[in-house]
UniProtKB/TrEMBL annotation:
Organism for this UniProt entry: Rhegmatorhina hoffmannsi
GO molecular function, a single term: proton transmembrane transporter activity
Domain of life: Eukaryota
Protein known as: ATP synthase complex subunit 8
Keyword annotations from UniProtKB, A to Z: ATP synthesis, CF(0), Hydrogen ion transport, Ion transport, Membrane, Mitochondrion, Transmembrane, Transmembrane helix, Transport
Family: Belongs to the ATPase protein 8 family.
Cellular compartments annotated: Mitochondrion membrane
The keyword Amino-acid biosynthesis is assigned to this record: no
InterPro entries: ATP8_metazoa, ATPase_protein_8
Single Gene Ontology BP annotation: proton motive force-driven ATP synthesis
Gene Ontology terms: cellular component: mitochondrial membrane; proton-transporting ATP synthase complex
Bilayer topology term: Single-pass membrane protein
Parts of the chain that traverse the membrane: 6-24
Length: 55
């Protein structure tokens, strides 16, 4: 059963995670978000219950 042999797969997984962590992630995190969160005031609307005919 070749899937139980971690020899080739562990190296591939380790290489891909190191590539992502050390190369790709800093490049992706350097981008600025275009939709920055703003401090908007929250206004709530008063809702009235529905007048159900059977209650």
């Amino acid at each position: 059963m070749p899937q139980l042999n971690p020899s080739p797969w562990f190296f591939i997984m380790l290489t891909s995670w190191l590539t992502f962590s050390l190369v790709l992630q800093p490049k992706l995190m350097s981008f600025k978000s275009t939709n920055l969160p703003s401090n908007k005031t929250v206004h709530t609307t008063k809702s009235t219950p529905w007048p159900w005919p059977w209650t």
